[in-house]
Amino acid sequence: MFRTIRFASLVRNFATKPEEIGNLVKGNKVVVFMKGVPEEPRCGFSNAVVQILRMHGVQYNAHDVLADEELRQGIKEFSNWPTIPQVYINGEFVGGCDIMLQMHQNGELIEELKKVGINSLLLETAKEADNTKK
Known about the structure:
Blueprint: H1 2-25, E1 30-34, E2 36-37, E3 40-41, H2 44-55, E4 61-64, H3 69-79, E5 86-89, E6 92-95, H4 97-106, H5 108-115, H6 121-133
Parallel strand pairs: 1-4
Antiparallel strand pairs: 1-5, 2-3, 5-6
């Protein structure tokens, strides 16, 4: 009997988790699933994503996967991506640290942010620098 109750509970949790995660990724224009919190990242890759978003002046929702093992496993299944951090823009999976770094370096991140109505602080800073030169 105990196994039956426990199994039913597990099935119920897994059945609702993708929907819950779907709601989380749609909860803000930019959502990050990371190890730790933005003020105190607990891995170098999460820290790099935080720094990239900070440079662009992006406000985002962050979820600490170390605080919730179900979320940690669930987000990997939801995105079909095995690593953390994971970044979502406008409800769509963008990638992890390596992809964010690449997008930051080639200017693609500025364009993706612009599509969802976020003006990159780097773009604004560059405009101000151009204006002072004129």
